[in-house]
């Protein structure tokens, strides 16, 4: 496509910094640039809303706390009460149950998200970490499940983050390190809600499979051969493995 100067009909220009200067007459004109990519000012209205904030919070907060990557100021009152309650290392489920039973002087929230920090501090042990490649798989799984949830328009409220994390890890085969540390993620006690979230989870997995599994999730991980019941996953004091 040949562009001619509107003043002298010249066809030779010097282009710089978004302006076009005609060599013959020296007239300067702005250049209109077209691009296939949509600019930040022109947001498409047909896009599907995906909860990126929720996905990022799961990655940075939930997994970050389990991996002990976050800075957390240990609550001395919680620490002393838990120390008095346990004389030897309990199972993760019993330890979380102990945190539930203690009574604090104020109405502040109990640090369920940071329970692994207190376990390490009280019993002077080093808990395992989720391997990097499995952490990436879990993050991708979390994003895909929420994408399928939006597509299927499942009833709200959607999964609590720790519930979905436990469903992912206890339904599919992950390393013993990942399986153990995820037990420090607080589960649900309500059997009705557990059953509902399990059914929704299976619907989402079926949707991902029928959609072609474009992310390759089910090639990266396999289902456990021995199924773990919902009650075994969340029952206090029992190991889900």
Range of strand content: under 5%
Overall radius of gyration: 27 Å
Low-confidence segments, ≥5 residues, pLDDT <50? 34-38, 43-49, 229-241
How confident overall, as mean pLDDT?
Answer: 81
Based on secondary structure, the structural category is: mainly alpha
Walk me through what this model shows.
The chain has 3 domains: 1-31; 52-64 and 131-234, no CATH class; 71-123, no CATH class. Helix content is 46%, strand content 5%. It has helices at 52-66, 76-85, 92-101, 115-123, 132-152, 161-171, 176-181, 191-210, 217-220, 230-234, and strands at 13-16, 19-22, 28-30. Helix 5 packs across helix 8 (191-210). The longest helix has 21 residues, at 132-152. The chain is elongated and about 90 Å long. The N and C termini lie far apart (69 Å). The model is unreliable at 34-38, 43-49 and 229-241 (pLDDT under 50).
Q: Secondary-structure blueprint of this entry?
A:
Elements: E1 13-16, E2 19-22, E3 28-30, H1 52-66, H2 76-85, H3 92-101, H4 115-123, H5 132-152, H6 161-171, H7 176-181, H8 191-210, H9 217-220, H10 230-234
Antiparallel strand pairs: 1-2, 2-3
Helix pairs in contact: 1-5, 5-8
